[in-house]
Design a protein that fits this description.
Elements (H helix, E strand, L loop, with lengths): L2 H22 L2 H4 L2 E4 L3 E3 L7 E2 L3 E5 L6 E3 L2 E2 L4 E7 L4 H5 L1 H9 L3 E6 L4 E5 L11 E3 L4 E3 L9 E3 H6 L1
Parallel strand pairs: 2-6, 7-8
Antiparallel strand pairs: 1-4, 2-3, 4-7, 5-6, 8-9, 9-10, 11-12
Length: 160
């Protein structure tokens, strides 16, 4: 298949997955949180450092945490979700460290390359412990540190 078509299919699959995740997390609004896509997380390593997670669970007062452009202070982010695509190694490597250093309580990766979901819960001392791995047929419990009790189906996170 043509590489451009493969990329377009992967992007569409990622969009479907994120839409399904948003549906699954609808209860977060009732708990006083919100969910956003395409919003930048300002990283404290330097004034120009930021990341744009695929999906974020944030405090309702996100707008009060505006830093610059479309970037917001990390203290309002509760859960970050990445759905791997062609740059899957970034989601599994550098982003884990960056998000932990920024103080985000939990990080979830729908790793389509390896057909599993990784959950980095329970941030402690600027690091996540070893991730919890979930396979097809299982459900991923959103950590208590996020502030809402939801379980996300692995198949939905991987397939949309």
């Amino acid at each position: 298949m043509d590489p451009e078509k493969e990329d377009a299919i992967a992007v569409r699959q990622q969009e479907l997955t994120l839409g399904e995740a948003a549906d699954q997390l609808a209860r977060i609004v009732e708990a006083g949180y919100d969910h956003v896509q395409g919003v930048g997380l300002w990283l404290p390593t330097s004034p120009e450092d930021f990341a744009i997670p695929d999906f974020s669970v944030v405090d309702e007062d996100l707008r009060d945490a505006h830093v610059t452009k479309n970037y917001y202070a990390p203290n309002v982010f509760r859960l970050l979700v990445e759905v791997t695509s062609s740059n899957w190694s970034d989601d599994l490597g550098p982003k884990v460290e960056c998000y932990a250093e920024a103080g985000v309580p939990a990080y979830l990766v729908a790793d389509r390359k390896h057909d599993e979901v990784l959950l980095h819960p329970d941030l402690a001392d600027g690091k996540y412990p070893h991730p919890q791995c979930f396979e097809r047929g299982q459900r991923v419990p959103v950590p208590e540190s996020v502030g809402v009790h939801v379980e996300l189906p692995v198949d939905t996170l991987l397939d949309g």
